[in-house]
């Protein structure tokens, strides 16, 4: 705890001076790390903490480096990280999320990891290597991988009398299947959860045609026509009963167990692999995960980062942080410690090492990841900043269309306006 | 703001006689039964969520999300020991940490807010109204707007990752809610009493400690219990200022059961939520006794 | 009228407060001023040391473009101009918030006052009643309440099941834009515990002699309430009105009950501070959010000032004459 002259001055004469110094980038506040120690932050509960604590304890034993752990619940994690980063007091090693990292990377809050000689980013799967990259800079190395899949409730699918395809299929076929399912299930149960507001699903839809969602410079490649077709597809599905009405979707917003998929009120729904594992733990009714609509010539899926390891741009011990990331990704004992508790390991070596030792649901998720690895196409670049905003916006637009408080054309216009002004 | 104006003739007597029994004790039996029925009805509505939580801590996860019933179909207490053991150092430690912070906050608010309130309620000094308006203005700015500058300030002071940012501000009367509350209560006390005490040779300190404080017991109890409960429930403060898991408070511990990016343990969440209500409930019940100890029982005999 | 009776009673301070000579009075005043500032000292230290700095900082930031991680850039009144002229979300969130304040605060206060009056008596088990009634407030905006509310006001929720019994077809209260906010209002009213406790404390603080005297006068129950209890309670009613209004304007957690903090469905629960928070922490627009914050301060300050002015007509303080 160093108290600088400026700090004392600030406290003595009113706090504005200190604030200007510490808060707004006029001068950097001292980081709390001391030599031989490192601050690390991540989100999670019992399972994540247990895994990381074991791996970090082992690291300390081996190298003598003390790691101060700032583990937080997911709720509030981003508020605190933003606050710490703004005050130039961010931890050295930071767990990032795919949707958030662009906002941090773009504003210079994260270190370019390619400058760290002790960290070899190529240890992670090829499809994941460029995830944290913008041109030749790298802002995060994938800590855990995930992918979107089509999760179905086996009983409901059977009752509906449908078969979820295993080969390539189209979004129109999904719509037909959903309608068929609703006819089989009758009132109050539907074919597929409403994904019209899910930007990830829309990106899959756009990539189906072979192009990228974002151009290499970060501008939007998708066209208004595509979004119109997408929103119309879902609007018609809601009308026909293929997808649930908007109030049912809204009722489950933000809570997986209350969602139609969690409640077995739809036969199918798009979800991340970690959601599949969480859903499987909810009840005893079997669920499976399979490939969403896709084509073989233009794979639309990609291996995604559930979380990434980043290093703060203000870190005084970035080299040590880089070594630690390396350890977490490659050390066989660390891999055993972590297991799948952060998500699917991002390296084939780790997945091979863990194979056979997992519970059924994580094993199914892991098998699915292997399937995705063979039918995917890496993203061309890290999401541009403003991605998280756009994601929220699409779900708002879809909801407004669903409740008929906005037209599809107005929604499309709003989306592209925001996308253009965001950059 | 016309809150603080001249003193004037007094509308009430000084309670020189021993206070009589409270009049409400003589309600007729029929009335009494009706009253009980009404209060029980209200209590049924307000107790419902707790019973629902209790039920939810005893049943399988899927049932939590499928029914608003308060009757458990199965009773399994396993979530209690499991939740208690989860998230080391565990709920026991979080409870202890919370109690430390709450105790500090309660003492701080009781000392600092009463001093400040006395000045505003009873003393005349230049710029008093301006300061009073400023004091109220400090609660009008949403907390999110000052979060980052405040964090920068506490970082510069070297207080981050200690309990100081959660306790010290209370000793510096930053809780305008309670200052205003105490001002309102103090202003309900006839000024005549102060003047009588002054004649007996009391200074302002004497009036404050011997007249005002005893006569505002219900307000002090309210301040204490609300400070306790609100500090106990506070999520944002501990989230931002505490970084070491061993120093976490109850709300942080509870949120660790829910993980949007992984598996959540809802049963344990409910078990520990129910358990975490015990301390606040105890504090509340203890405070009940003080709440009814106003003028009526404290009196001003002698 | 019964108060007039009281006025005739002895006032021990009156004789001593007779005419004084001027220098003494001035000395006394100065001493009182010094004492006043001495009592205020902790508050001043907190104000200058902890409160004013961050407030000033946020005021400054409201005139800048500031994305949290890079330096703030001065833009003058641009944020304010944009908010007031070209921001539909600002209008939506202000509307939602004002409706919430106007509907929930009076209902909550009325319920709190009514129950406090009913419970301000020696009754068997009264402390149990009080504690149980405070329960909803203890739960606040927790995950538990969020889940429970969905099951009460959802499509197949308990409320609709009750309505079905009497043959009324319900709707999905919590997830329909027209009714989502009203379920939050119900929640706010249901959490009436804090103002009720403060009312109770206020009632306990009333000098019982007044009731005695009035009873001797032969004043009835209702009259005693109207002429003694209510006037003496006005400072506390006023306090609750002011603080509950400010709190309601800043309502933040309730929006997490329904929409998990998105403000949905279709912006129907987009509370002002939620919008402010979204701008600040999810869109990294802290300059804009700071301007939103200060506009809210202006709104709250105006409402509070109006309340204070109006209070001269109805709030009665024992330490000043009427």
From TrEMBL, chain A:
Coiled coil: none annotated. Keywords: Signal. Residues 1-28 form the signal peptide. SUPFAM superfamilies: Periplasmic binding protein-like II (SSF53850). It comes from the Bacteria. This is Extracellular solute-binding protein. It comes from Auraticoccus cholistanensis.
TrEMBL record, chain B:
InterPro entries: MetI-like, MetI-like_sf. It comes from Auraticoccus cholistanensis. PROSITE patterns: ABC_TM1. The chain crosses the membrane at residues 33-54, 94-118, 130-151, 163-183, 211-232, 266-287. The keyword Transmembrane applies. SUPFAM superfamilies: MetI-like (SSF161098). Belongs to the binding-protein-dependent transport system permease family. Residues 95-287 form the ABC transmembrane type-1 domain. It is found in: Cell membrane. This is ABC transporter permease subunit. Keywords: Cell membrane, Membrane, Transmembrane, Transmembrane helix, Transport. Residues 1-25 are annotated as: Disordered. The keyword Cytoplasm does not apply. One of its GO terms (biological process) is transmembrane transport. It comes from the Bacteria. Residues 8-18 have a biased composition (Pro residues). GO terms for cellular component: plasma membrane. It is a multi-pass membrane protein.
């Amino acid at each position: 705890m160093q108290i600088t002259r400026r700090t004392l001055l600030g406290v003595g004469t009113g706090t504005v001076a200190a604030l200007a110094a510490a808060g707004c980038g006029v001068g950097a506040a001292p980081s709390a790390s001391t030599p031989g120690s490192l601050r690390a932050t991540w989100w999670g509960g019992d399972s994540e903490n247990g895994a990381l604590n074991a791996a970090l304890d082992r690291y300390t034993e081996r190298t003598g480096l003390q790691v101060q752990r700032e583990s937080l619940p997911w709720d509030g994690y981003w508020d605190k990280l933003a606050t710490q980063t703004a005050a130039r007091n961010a931890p050295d090693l930071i767990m990032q999320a795919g949707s958030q990292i662009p906002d941090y990377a773009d504003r210079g809050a994260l270190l370019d990891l390619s400058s760290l000689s002790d960290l070899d980013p190529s240890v992670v799967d090829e499809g994941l290597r460029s995830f944290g990259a913008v041109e030749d800079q790298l802002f995060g190395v994938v800590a855990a991988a995930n992918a979107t899949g089509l999760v179905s409730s086996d009983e409901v699918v059977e009752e509906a009398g449908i078969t979820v395809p295993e080969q390539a299929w189209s979004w129109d076929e999904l719509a037909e299947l959903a309608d068929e399912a609703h006819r089989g299930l009758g009132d109050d149960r539907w074919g597929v959860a409403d994904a019209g507001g899910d930007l990830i699903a829309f990106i899959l839809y756009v990539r189906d045609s072979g192009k990228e969602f974002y151009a290499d410079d970060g501008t939007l490649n998708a066209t208004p026509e595509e979004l119109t077709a997408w929103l119309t597809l879902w609007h018609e599905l809601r009308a026909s009963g293929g997808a649930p009405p908007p109030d049912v979707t809204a009722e489950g917003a933000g809570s997986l167990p209350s969602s139609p998929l969690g409640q077995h009120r739809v036969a199918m729904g798009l979800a991340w692999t970690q959601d599949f594992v969480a859903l499987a733990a909810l009840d005893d009714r079997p669920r499976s995960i399979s490939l969403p609509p896709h084509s073989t010539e233009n794979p639309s899926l990609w291996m995604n980062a559930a979380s990434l390891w980043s290093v703060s741009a203000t870190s005084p011990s970035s080299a040590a942080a880089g070594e630690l990331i390396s350890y977490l990704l490659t050390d066989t004992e660390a891999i055993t410690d972590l297991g799948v508790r952060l998500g699917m390991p991002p390296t084939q070596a780790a997945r091979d090492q863990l194979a056979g030792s997992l519970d059924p649901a994580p094993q199914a998720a892991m098998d699915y990841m292997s399937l995705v690895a063979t039918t995917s196409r890496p993203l061309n670049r890290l999401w541009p900043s403003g991605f998280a905003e756009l994601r929220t916006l699409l779900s708002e637009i879809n909801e407004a269309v669903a409740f008929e408080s906005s037209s599809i054309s107005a929604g499309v216009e709003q989306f592209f306006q925001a996308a253009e002004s965001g950059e | 703001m016309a809150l603080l104006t001249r003193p004037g003739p007094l509308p009430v007597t000084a309670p020189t006689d021993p206070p009589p029994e409270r009049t409400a004790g003589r309600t007729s039996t029929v009335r009494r039964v009706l009253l009980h029925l009404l209060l029980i009805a209200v209590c049924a509505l307000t107790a419902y969520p707790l019973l629902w939580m209790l039920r939810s801590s005893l049943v399988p996860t899927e049932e939590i999300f499928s029914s608003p019933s308060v009757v458990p179909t199965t009773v399994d207490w396993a979530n209690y020991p499991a939740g208690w053991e989860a998230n080391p150092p565990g709920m026991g430690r979080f409870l202890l940490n919370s109690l430390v912070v709450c105790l500090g906050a309660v003492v701080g608010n009781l000392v600092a807010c009463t001093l400040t309130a006395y000045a505003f309620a009873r003393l005349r000094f230049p710029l008093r109204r301006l300061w009073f308006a400023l004091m109220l203005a400090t609660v009008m700015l949403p907390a999110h707007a000052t979060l980052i500058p405040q964090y920068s300030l506490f970082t510069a002071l070297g207080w981050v990752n200690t309990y100081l940012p959660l306790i010290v501000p209370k000793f510096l009367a930053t809780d305008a809610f309670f200052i205003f509350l105490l001002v309102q209560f103090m202003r309900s006390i006839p000024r005549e009493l102060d003047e009588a005490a002054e004649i007996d040779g009391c200074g302002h300190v004497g009036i404050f400690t011997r007249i005002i404080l005893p006569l505002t017991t219900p307000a002090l109890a309210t301040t204490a219990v609300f400070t306790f409960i609100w500090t106990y429930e506070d999520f944002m403060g501990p989230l931002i200022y505490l970084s070491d898991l061993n120093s976490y408070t109850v709300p942080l511990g509870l949120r660790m059961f829910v993980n949007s990016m992984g598996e959540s343990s809802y049963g344990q969440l409910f078990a520990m939520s129910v358990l975490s209500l015990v301390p606040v409930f105890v504090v509340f019940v203890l405070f009940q006794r003080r709440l009814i100890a106003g003028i009526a029982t404290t009196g001003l005999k002698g | 009228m019964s108060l007039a009776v009281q006025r005739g009673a002895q006032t021990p301070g009156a004789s001593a407060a007779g005419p004084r000579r001027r220098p003494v009075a001035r000395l006394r005043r100065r001493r009182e001023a010094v004492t006043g500032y001495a009592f205020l000292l902790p508050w001043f230290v907190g104000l200058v040391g902890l409160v004013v700095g961050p407030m000033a900082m946020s005021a400054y930031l409201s005139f800048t473009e500031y994305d949290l991680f890079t330096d703030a850039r001065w833009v003058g009144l641009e944020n304010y101009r944009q908010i007031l002229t070209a921001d539909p979300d600002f209008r939506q969130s202000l509307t939602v918030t004002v409706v919430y304040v106007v509907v929930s605060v009076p209902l909550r206060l009325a319920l709190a006052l009514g129950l406090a009056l009913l419970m301000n008596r020696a009754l068997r088990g009264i402390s149990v009643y009080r504690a149980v009634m405070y329960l909803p407030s203890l739960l606040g905006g927790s995950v538990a309440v969020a889940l429970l509310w969905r099951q009460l006001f959802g499509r197949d929720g308990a409320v609709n099941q009750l309505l079905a019994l009497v043959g009324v077809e319900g709707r999905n209260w919590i997830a329909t834009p027209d009714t989502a906010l009203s379920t939050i209002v119900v929640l706010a009213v249901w959490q009436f515990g804090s103002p009720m406790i403060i009312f109770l404390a206020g009632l306990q603080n009333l000098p019982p002699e007044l009731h005695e005297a009035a009873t001797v006068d032969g004043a009835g129950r209702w009259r005693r309430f109207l002429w003694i209890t209510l006037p003496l309670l006005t400072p506390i009613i006023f306090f609750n009105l002011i603080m509950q209004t400010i709190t309601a304007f800043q309502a933040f957690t309730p929006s997490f009950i329904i929409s998990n903090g998105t403000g949905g469905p279709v912006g129907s629960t987009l509370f002002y501070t939620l919008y402010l928070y979204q701008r600040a922490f999810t869109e990294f627009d802290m300059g804009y959010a700071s301007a939103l914050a200060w506009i809210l301060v202006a709104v709250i300050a105006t409402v509070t000032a109006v309340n204070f002015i109006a209070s001269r007509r109805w709030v009665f303080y024992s330490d000043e004459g009427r």
